[in-house]
Amino acid sequence: MKPKRKWGAVFKHALEGVFASFKTQRNLRVHGAAAVLVTAAALFFRLPPRDIALLMLVIALVISLELVNTAIEATVDLVTPEWHKLAKMAKDAAAGAVLVAAVFAVIIGLLLFYEPVLHWLGFT
Ligand SMILES: Nc1ncnc2c1ncn2[C@@H]1O[C@H](COP(=O)(O)OP(=O)(O)OP(=O)(O)O)[C@@H](O)[C@H]1O
């Protein structure tokens, strides 16, 4: 039987996965930067806690799916360096999952920032 890993080791490996993915995946860095900017804007416009919680949720969803996408890409590359229609399907579907989450994140962001930005610009 495999010996049980300590919580510290589990946490360390998970963090290594996050850092390695940020280091190698440009899209993940772009989404990370967008998340920092959106969070700063939410604080600047004093969005209500529930709106900030919703933003945190969609940010976590997009970043998590980027990490899963990275894992799937690495696994596919490990299994086959050759062109294969199943490899294409796995990678395209994983990228599609990130795209769907990112599009809905943008829509949610527009809905949440629309009023405070108009107010700040003096239109309401
Ligand atoms: N082994 C393969 N067989 C078939 N198609 C592949 C294979 N590897 C990659 N592809 C195709 O090329 C696309 C890009 O794959 P790649 O591994 O280069 O991802 P990437 O450009 O690094 O993605 P990301 O920008 O998200 O990191 C895939 O979505 C898929 O359509």
Task: Provide an overview of this structure.
The chain has 124 residues and is mainly α. 85% of the residues lie in helices and 0% in strands. Helix 1 packs across helix 2. The termini are far apart. The mean pLDDT is 96. Bound molecules: adenosine-5'-triphosphate (ATP). Residues 25, 27, 69, 73, 80, 83-84, 87-88, 91-92, 95 line the site of adenosine-5'-triphosphate (ATP).
Global mean pLDDT: 96
Helix content: over 70%
Order of helices and strands: HHHH
* Major sheet summary line: none
Number of helices: 4
Strand percent estimate: under 5%
> What are the segments in which pLDDT stays under 50 over at least 5 consecutive residues?
none
Q: Any idea what the shape is?
A: globular
The strand count comes to 0
- For the record, give the distance between the C-alpha atoms at the N and C termini, rounded to a whole number: 66 Å
Q: What class do helices, strands and sheet pairing give?
A: mainly alpha
Pfam family, one: DAGK_prokar
Family: Belongs to the bacterial diacylglycerol kinase family.
GO molecular function: kinase activity
Membrane topology: Multi-pass membrane protein
